[in-house]
Amino acid sequence: MEVIIQMMSYPFITRAFIVGILVSLCAALLGVSLVLKQYSMIGDGLSHVSYGALSIAVAFGIVPLKLSIPVVIAAAVILLRMNENGVMKSDAAIAAMSASALAIGVTVTSFTTGMTTDVCSYMFGSILAMSQEDVVLSVILSAAVLILFVFCYHNIFAVTFDESFSRATGVKVSFYNTMISVLTAVTIVLGMQMMGAMLISSLVIFPALSSMQLFKSFKSVMVSSGILATVCFCAGIMVSYIYSVPAGASVVLVNLFVFMAFMIVKKLLLLQNRDI
After folding, report:
1. What is the DSSP annotation of 112-174?
2. 236 within 8 A of 254, measured Cβ to Cβ
3. Which of 19, 32, 139, 217 is least surrounded, with the fewest CB atoms within 10 Å of its CB?
């Protein structure tokens, strides 16, 4: 408790907690649908697109979030349309766009500002990167993502498990797929500053994978993922503060530890049931 009080005395850590919990919750909820739809690598691809946009913004003195959010949303919609129209399979499209965006970002950076602290923080993450304006914008957008997700929960559930049946029952499958992609894009951009392009996709993947080890229903996996994401983020920030290690890496390692623990528990339960 003393450590927590001491941490909260620093404004930048308080900002990191507020934004990090909201972003982790958004990423975890969206991650369940993305993992089940075998589209989980979109997080990694969009993070690289976001890095490219952020590098351009820093190079030309543009507010990073104001440029990267529309660019990443456009990239998410393009990836979805390419997959739906059969132009290119999702994994190939994500790989191509990811590599291209990363190359563009690195090239622009090398010709203009060079590898400044701002650019490095977007690549590897830094809780010091959150300004007051970023926090306000992040809270508003995270709240919007959560509200839309809860409001459209039943249709997202239907689209996740059976697109053909959903289309036959009148659900606008294309609209809800687009909405999931857009919400994912916004979440990825918001989490970039703390987690970095190299690590942000872990917030999407790990909570869902861990929850699926022990829970079977969509709702229980959703609830478990949200709780795990929040707890792991808070634990990761505390580890980062106590041992002076990068926050993004700490959060990922805590998520990895929880995933391995859930796998072990699953194995033990299977062995117990087999003996019975």
Report:
1. TT-S-HHHHHHHH--GGG--HHHHHHHHHHHHHHHHHHHHTHHHHHHHHH-HHHHHHTT--HH
2. yes
3. 217
Beta strand extents in the chain (DSSP E only): none
Rounded to 5 degrees, what angle do the CA atoms 184, 189, 193 make? 140
Say what the pTM is: 0.85
What pLDDT, on the 0 to 100 scale, is given for residue 122? 66
b (16+ CB within 10 A) / e for 197-232: bbbbbbbbbbbbbbbbbebeebeebbbbbbebbbbb
Give the model's pLDDT for residue 260: 95
**How many whole angstroms separate alpha carbon 97 and alpha carbon 74?**
12
Give dist(CA 132, CA 140) in Å, integer. Answer: 13
Angstrom distances, CA of residue 105 to CA of 22, 68, 130: 27, 12, 21
> What's the confidence (pLDDT) of residue 87?
66
The three-class DSSP label of residue 199 is coil
Distance between the two ends of the chain, CA-based, in angstroms?
A: 43
Residues of the chain with pLDDT under 50: none
- Burial class of residue 185 in the structure, from the number of CB atoms within 10 Å of its CB (0-12 exposed, 13-18 middle, 19+ buried): buried
